[in-house]
Amino acid sequence: MEKLEKLKPGSELLSPLNGGLPSSSRGITSVMQTLRVEVVARALDMLWRELELAGEPLIFKSPAHGQMYTEHHPLLLAKLVAEGERRKRERPGQLANWQRLEAPAYAQGIAETEDTGLLLKADMLRDAEPGDRGVIPAVPTGWLCYRFNSSWSALSVYFYDPEDNERVGHVTAIPRGREDQWLAFLELLDDLHTRIARRHRRGRIEIIGGNDEMVEVIERTTFNDVVLPAETLTQVAAQRRIFDAKILRRYDTLRVPRLRKVLLIGPPGTGKTTLLKAEGSYHAKQGGLVFYVCAPGKSRGSSSWQHLSYALRSAAESKLPTLVLVEDFEMFVSDPQELQLVLNTLDGVATPDNPAGTLLLATSNDPERIDQRIRDRPGRVDILIEIGPVESVEMAERFLKHFLGVAYREEEHAALAPLLLGQPGSHFREVCIAAAMRALDQDHTAVTHDDLLQAHELILNGRALAAQGERFMPASARKRGGFLGKHAR
């Protein structure tokens, strides 16, 4: 075979654009397919020798790391060089300088034009959207040359590759024997990328699988909106200890992933969702990162569990104290085909470990639907906290005062509290709203005890009727009679 050094620039042998390599045998012309990565690898080898770089080149696909190939991002490279110049002690893999090269002619146009593809948010992790500020171009395609403090050089190419499932190609050439230093270089870049992301994500609320308008809803929620027994609030607040340095060290000593899983259980309308949002708002104000995970629609290509799994992995990668919020937990872990993945992630070989701590706070109206291997296995769900209907007169009075606001009068309304026991908090809200509407209809200047009582009974009667499903079923054909009212024979 002809040596690469003897190949002429522009030779058909290096062209991936004509369907492959021409070959002839006994007068018959055939075409052999050439992959872009092969063309790039050969071009790197030729460029290495053309630039007379030291050492025999080792050409390979650089390992994927993080959420981008950071070694091709100009911003990160410039910051890494600047950091190295400020440091007194040299680090392994420290970059001295770098430069962008023109694509060589024998690369047949691969990565000849710089193309960033898209824009990123300021945290350099997510795609930018209309209205964002401080956006940054993503990794551009192109050819780079790196020079390191320890007097060695490397080449790298980032290009679009439709033959690859990831749609991008990435090939690197380094001197043989410098593999460890190249990986140290990548680690420095990843650490820099993480620090930028952490700076921009502190105190943020991010929605996974849902509408970003939810962020404002969560931000507005406070513990003033939560009406629950003090012992329940204390029990939930105690779970935040996962973020304490002492507890994190204890987890680390035990070699346990720093992930706490808490499940709030109880019937609908008891205040679980409001508590979730209040915890999210509080955590963000403390400078933590919040993921609110929504179940995708049926037409989406991803599953509910994939959304939750992504949130847990992202929490670990952020290295920030992270709160992951999930409503209707049973919807996320009920697919039998995903059960093993769920078990391995919640407490197994695939559990993400966040050095700053992750708290998964989830709710369930129907914990019976959750597989026992998840619900009842210590470590997969660390603690279950029940949030039930109102059971004390004191709590009933608190709910009336909360939802009536300035209209509440103890001498007028407190007597109704015992009648409302056993109802969820949402029932109190609807009673108070319906009572206020009745007061307007009756031209009352204030909401009366009778307004509340009538509203309470009206809502209960409606539920009782709805529970009698047979009342709303059409009569059978036999009971109704046949066609045109004639009895069927």
Strand numbers in spatial order across the main sheet: 10-12-13-14-11-15
Largest sheet: 6 strands, parallel
Proportion of helical residues: 25-40%
Helix/strand/pairing category: alpha/beta
Mean pLDDT: 88
Low-confidence stretches: 1-19, 480-489
List the domain count as a whole number.
3
In angstroms, what separates the terminal alpha carbons? Answer: 93 Å
Q: Rg from C-alpha positions?
A: 32 Å
Number of strands: 15
Q: What topology emerges from the helices and strands here?
A:
Blueprint: E1 21-25, E2 28-32, H1 36-50, E3 57-60, H2 74-86, E4 95-101, E5 119-120, E6 136-137, E7 142-148, E8 152-160, E9 168-175, H3 179-201, E10 205-208, H4 214-220, H5 230-237, H6 245-253, E11 259-265, H7 272-285, E12 289-293, H8 304-318, E13 322-326, H9 339-347, E14 358-364, H10 372-375, E15 383-386, H11 393-404, H12 410-413, H13 425-441, H14 449-467, H15 477-480
Characterization of this structure:
The protein is an alpha/beta fold. The chain folds into three domains: 4-19 and 31-200, no CATH class; 205-386, Rossmann fold (3-Layer(aba) Sandwich); 393-467, Orthogonal Bundle (Helicase, Ruva Protein, domain 3). 35% of the residues lie in helices and 17% in strands. The strands form four sheets. It has a six-stranded parallel beta sheet, with helices on both faces. The chain has a five-stranded antiparallel beta sheet with strand order 3-9-8-7-4, sandwiched between helices. The chain has a two-stranded antiparallel ribbon with strand order 1-2. It has helices spanning 36-50, 74-86, 179-201, 214-220, 230-237, 245-253, 272-285, 304-318, 339-347, 372-375, 393-404, 410-413, 425-441, 449-467, 477-480, and strands at 21-25, 28-32, 57-60, 95-101, 119-120, 136-137, 142-148, 152-160, 168-175, 205-208, 259-265, 289-293, 322-326, 358-364, 383-386. Helix 2 packs across helix 3 and helix 13 packs across helix 14 (449-467).
